Amino acid sequence: MEFQQPQKPAGDGKIVYPPGVKEITDKISNDEVVKRLKMVVKTYMDMDQDSEEEKQQYLDLALHLASEFFLRNPNKDVRLLVACCLADIFRIYAPEAPYTSHDKLKDIFLFITRQLKGLEDTKSPQFNRYFYLLENLAWVKSYNICFELEDCNEIFIQLFKTLFSVINNSHNQKVQMHMMDLMSSIITEGDGVTQELLDTILINLIPAHKNLNKQAYDLAKTLLKRTVQTIETCIANFFNQVLVMGKSSVSDLSEHVFDLIQELFAIDPLLLTSVMPQLEFKLKSNDGEERLAVVRLLAKLFGAKDSELATQNRPLWQCFLGRFNDIHVPVRLECVKFASHCLMNHPDLAKDLTEYLKVRSHDPEEAIRHDVIVTIINAGKKDLNLVNDQLLGFVRERTLDKRWRVRKEAMMGLAQLYKKYCLHHEAGKESAQKISWIKDKLLHIYYQNSIDDKLLVEKIFAQYMVPHSLDTEEKMKCLYYLYACLDTNAVKALNEMWKCQNMLRGLVRELLDLHKLPVSEANNTAMFGKLMTIAKNLPDAGKAQDFMKKFNQVLGEDEKLRIQLETLISPTCSCKQAEICVREITRKLTFPKQPTNPFLEMVKFLLERIAPVHIDSEAISALVKLLNKSIEGTADDDEEGVTPDTAIRSGLELLKVLSFTHPTAFHSAETYESLLQCLKMEDDKVAEAAIQIFRNTGQKIETELQQIRSTLIPVLHQKAKRGTPHQAKQAVHCIHAIFNNKEVQLAQIFEPLSRSLNADVPEQLITPLVSLGHISMLAPDQFASPMKSIVANFIVKDLLMNDRSTGNKNGKLWSLDDEVSPEVLAKVQAIKLLVRWLLGMKNNQSKSANSTLRLLSAMLVSEGDLTEQKKISKSDMSRLRLAAGGAIMKLAQEPCYHDIITPEQFQLCGLVINDECYQVRQIFAQKLHLALAKLMLPLEYLAVFALCAKDPVKERRAHARQCLLKNITVRREYIKQNPLAQEKLVSLLPEYVVPFMIHLLAHDPDFTKPQEYDQLKDIKECLWFMLEVLMTKNENNSHAFLRKMVENIKQSKDAQCPDDAKATEKLYIVCDVALFVIANKSTACHLESPKDPILPSKFFLIQDKDFKNDKDYLSAEMKQMLLTGKPKPSPVLGAVNKPLTVPGRRVFVKTTTTGSDTASNVSTNSQNSPQTLNKNSNAVTESTEAGARENNENPVINAEDGKKAEAGQNTAPSATTGATPPKRRGRPPKSATAATPATAEKEGGAAAGAGSVRARKRPADATSDTINIKVSKQQPKEDGTKRQIDLQSRRPHLSLWKDAEREGEQGEERKHILVQNPFCLGSEGDMENELESGLEWVILGSKDAKLCHRLQRAWTSGQDSSEEEDGGVETRAANPDRQRESIGAEEAGTLIFYNGY
């Protein structure tokens, strides 16, 4: 608008006042001024824009009211009235203002703005006038006049500040509306919003101001919503300057930009239409803190409940997701925290988040892995449908994390989900089914070595899986159906948990018994041993020892505390009593002035483990009632998801386990009546479990429950005579355990069974043989004479030495239990009977043990076919070899029989671990491990594990190594905790296994050419398999002790064949290889040995003092080859599609075989013809396939279609294939070409118990064209002196196919070179390149030939660890002789091995 020229006063220039109003000057008082101004105000209020005459009449008055007298009047009432007049003047004279001066207008509007501050006090008597002023200004839009002023921005800023400062919660809607109208008109009708004015609005959105004046925030929010179309450009300009151009000086709000963006987005996303792309730019900033701020902002924007930003702005969403992989840890952490809100508020985005959370669940930062779990669990607790199976799988993986904090969070999170959805069924059966795996997974963790894991599983079981706070019936129902639904491993873990708790209760009971004895040195020593054992079962063993010593001291001083503890561990303690005792003991040990009491926490851990919070007599009764309901068909079995048969069987198994740990709780007529009903059921497993429960708990039946006794005896007799073998065993032991007249009872069983033995009906022999065997073991003196006759005339002569039936000639090396012929089953039981008979006698006065050992040895030599009539099948022979090997091992556990076992018999027994049948190796190794772990077998049998280095199955080697480590650890711990063990170090110290190992390897039937590299390499690997575990630590200078021991062996003679020069030479060569290995793996082995080792006289003869053997049996060249690997004939790669030959990394070439090629687990080993390499053929064949079987070692590789097909799998060779050499049992011939993965055979040809193993056996050299042939068994018998076991020709052989670590997928046919990256990372590895499996293949194209040459040279030259980069691909080579290392992924439940060979 244009301003008018100054107007002259009308008439004579006198100011005209309204009627009745006298002149207003500075001469009058303020009260009079106010009085007169009120009349002026009323006059202007009554005027309208059409009153032209009055407008002209009062023009001078209007100009007068804008004078300095009024605008600067100190009286606020005067100023208010003048402001009201001025507002009306602008209304009346609109659109032309009577004031022409820009400065005057500015002064007037600033004056009016100042008066608006009076709106703040709504209780003021003048508030109505202030409201009238606001209403007038808003209605007329008077401030729009200022647009033409140069410095109008100052007025607007002042106005906005005033209005935002005065608004409060006492203002009504009208006040807010007029304020809004006034401000919005300025924004929408102006040319734009300056940065200062925008700051005035936006400052109210900053959290600090927002909290101070919520009404100002609401006003600003409403204002922005109303003016979004106009103000959006100004906002975009502001953020552009701050975010993109970095001009933080443009506004004082620059440091609050992210808070402002969040608020503006919440107000109206349209306000930020142009700003969001700028955020994408900031997400890629080089400043980590800046990225963090943007991520925090976007996390709030994307995660807001009603936000649609992710769907509306996909590029920004994808860019944000990329920050999950940010190099800056806080950024990744913030992203993970955001995911929780996002999953809960936007389930549709779960798919996008899953992959990124997967990577972060393997993040090297512990805090991030922890927060991934928290994120998923929180979402799952809100609604299980918010988390998919993949997300729950990430939590499942983290239960095996390296860090305890992460593992604990994962385990507790899963436990909470289980309790909410499976126990309380808060989301129905479908949700419960979705996470039904949790119960099994949590219990599987009990297998971990960490005591913290075990304690947490026990806590979870007591609080979440079977809450101890439930009443007894509910608690037992929960336990009953939980046990029925668990998988096999979870059941074993739960049983182990109860066993450990019971063991700990026993230790505490023994400790309390020691307190009752007089004080003595021996008593103190025994007490200390108990305390150390108890401390091992508590977290932080070091602190636990100190706290247990303190607790023991308190027990000694406080008799009441001892009484409470005795009550707690008493077999008759109820669950309620246990809670009271724990509370009382805790109260006594609590110190009020001590806020944290680690001593009390440790005692609580102990009390939690020993307190019977689940099982007592009442609980057992409740379980038996549930079992009865299942038997009667009135239980809720189907509703709980189990069949009645499963519920009954698992219920009996549960009671059986509890009968070991809580036998006293079973002693009631009602319980035993129910068990008698179970004995009459058709289910064999149910009856067997019931008998075992009677055996464990029935000690008082004979004296207190006569009716139960009279009913039980005939049932036990019937089971011992005609039940299953397991029932017969348990029945005999039950009679022996609970009846006083056991001799009479056993005789009533023995006599009819011994008379009914008939080898022509083997089906009816098995149960009698089992019963007779256990009777002879339990009552050897009573049945000594008849048993000797039975053994001599029937067992050996009639049963074992005769083959009445012809076995199935299908060529399989193993068959299912129900496929084994009855005659062989009877023979297996006959072998067990012999062992039980001898174990019962425990003496060798009659030389029966010698005869039995010769019989067992002959069975091993004859490969299970004792009569050598070739009637028996291959699978049955495997069963008999396993039985014979196990029998020798069982006899060795008895000292009187161990002493008469010859070295030859020991070697025969040990070589079973290299049997040609996978299942024989597996079962034998398991038996060996268990007996050694219980310290029942002599130390020499630990040496047998060294032969496991030759096993072609990677998983078997890994398992054997774990068994070896476990056994060595057990022995070391036993020596530490038992001071008396120092006197028996020769039989306990693990290092003393080395002489037995060296002797065993020196007599290895495969060790025929002592100077041949391949055989020496085999010896080296067997030695290192054992020495690697022994030399993990150099405790007490053990490395020097090992060296000294081997040197002493080299100065002795072989006691087995002292006059055999070749055998002695082989012994010395093995010694030299052992010394070579020790020297290369230890720098401390050349120190002085702490002790002079003692050699076993049974295996070594001491030479004369003058004898000195300083000969070096290994040439320098051979040492070099053993150190670096055998040189390869092809030094470089000729073409890209040629195989990359690396030591230990054999490349397999497709060969064409005929239908006559058969598996090595059949009756013969066919020899494959060597094939010529075709340059244009594919050099790499596929690695492990699920169909391959370890017991079928030569699958056919078809050259035409490149696919493997197993020809004649598990079958004997066709007659049309021509003559084949006789097959050697055991290790397949080294010359036999094979490129097959070794996989266990199972159930008619599938893997048995081992799953799908993914390891290859080493193929033979292509140039090999001969095969070793086993000496025929049908040889003339020599006299007694010559009938010595020839281990070289009779020994079961297992192919020494080296571990080439071919587990990873070698992939399809490619014209690429596959190089294995040995650096496989676990949860703490590179977050971007973490591997899912144990192996990674890097594919290099032809352009990388130079790199491949360098890599090959590095490998073949044995360089230790070199890194080169070429074309962005990083490779690492390693020393071929480097030992396997566990690189990572312990948290994933498996070990990833790096094999340097």
UniProtKB/TrEMBL annotation:
Biased composition (Low complexity): 1211-1221, 1229-1239
GO biological process: cell division; DNA repair; mitotic sister chromatid cohesion
Region Disordered, annotated ranges: 1152-1287, 1354-1386
Keywords: Cell cycle, Cell division, Mitosis, Nucleus, Repeat
Location of the protein in the cell: Nucleus
Signal peptide: none
Biased composition (Polar residues): 1152-1184, 1263-1274
Cited Pfam families: PDS5 (PF20168)
Gene3D superfamilies: Leucine-rich Repeat Variant
Cross-referenced InterPro entries: ARM-like (IPR011989), ARM-type_fold (IPR016024), Pds5 (IPR039776)
Location, primary (coarse class): nucleus
GO cellular component: chromatin; nucleus
Ranges of biased composition (kind: Basic and acidic residues): 1275-1287
Record PANTHER family: ANDROGEN INDUCED INHIBITOR OF PROLIFERATION AS3 / PDS5-RELATED (PTHR12663), SISTER CHROMATID COHESION PROTEIN PDS5 HOMOLOG A (PTHR12663:SF2)
Full protein name: Sister chromatid cohesion protein PDS5 A
Species of the source: Merluccius polli (Benguela hake)
Gene name linked to the record: pds5a
